[in-house]
Design goal:
The chain has four helices and six strands; from the N terminus they run E-E-E-H-E-H-H-E-E-H. The protein has helices at residues 42-52, 75-86, 105-111, 149-159; strands at 8-10, 16-18, 26-32, 57-63, 127-130, 136-140. By secondary structure, the chain is α+β, with helices and mostly antiparallel strands. The strands form two sheets. The chain has a four-stranded mixed β-sheet, with helices on one face. Strands 1-2 form a two-stranded antiparallel sheet. The longest helix is centred in the middle third of the chain and has 12 residues, at 75-86. Helix content is 26%, strand content 18%. The chain starts with 7 loop residues before the first strand and ends with a helix.
């Protein structure tokens, strides 16, 4: 598979999330966790999403429990936490693995040995910027805040 749009994930709460739905959109993919020191990044992700959504921008939250068990909940618990605590409205997938033998095929595309930005995911809240054509444009470290100048300028550039 050669494009982000070629993949499918389970949708948080059930059903399929066909990433071809994001064709012609710029997407920020973020592996997320509810019990992490970086969890407050949700406070910056949601406003970023709302500000740029009308221009063709999406955020895809991808829960992962591989980093010290910081996303232990069920789909329902994760969904409730995100909507109640952070008013998250952007799409979320079901829990997946982003590293190791059980690495989801999407993350093999994003970070595998043949990826544009290869290497294991360092921690929760690592970010990948996907262009309208499904190519990976940028990779941002977990500690890079969603509203950092380099993230926002990369999003604006990809949208134009």
């Amino acid at each position: 598979m050669s494009s982000f749009h070629d993949y499918q994930l389970n949708k948080l709460g059930g059903g399929n999330l066909d990433l071809s739905e994001f064709k012609d959109k710029v997407v920020l993919v973020v592996n997320v966790a509810s019990k992490c020191g970086l969890t407050p990044q949700y406070k910056k992700l949601e406003p970023l999403y709302r500000e740029h959504k009308s221009q063709g921008f999406e955020i895809l939250g991808v829960p992962c429990n591989q980093f010290m068990g910081q996303e232990p909940g069920t789909d329902e618990e994760i969904q409730s936490f995100c909507s109640t605590k952070y008013d998250v409205t952007f799409p979320m997938s079901g829990k997946i693995e982003v590293n190791g033998e059980g690495r989801d095929p999407l993350y093999q595309f994003l970070a595998g040995e043949n990826a544009a930005f290869p290497g294991d995911i360092q921690w929760n809240f690592e970010k990948f910027l996907i262009g309208k054509d499904g190519t990976v444009l940028k990779r941002f470290s977990p500690r890079t805040e969603p509203d950092a100048d380099d993230v926002v300028s990369a999003i604006k550039s990809a949208l134009s």
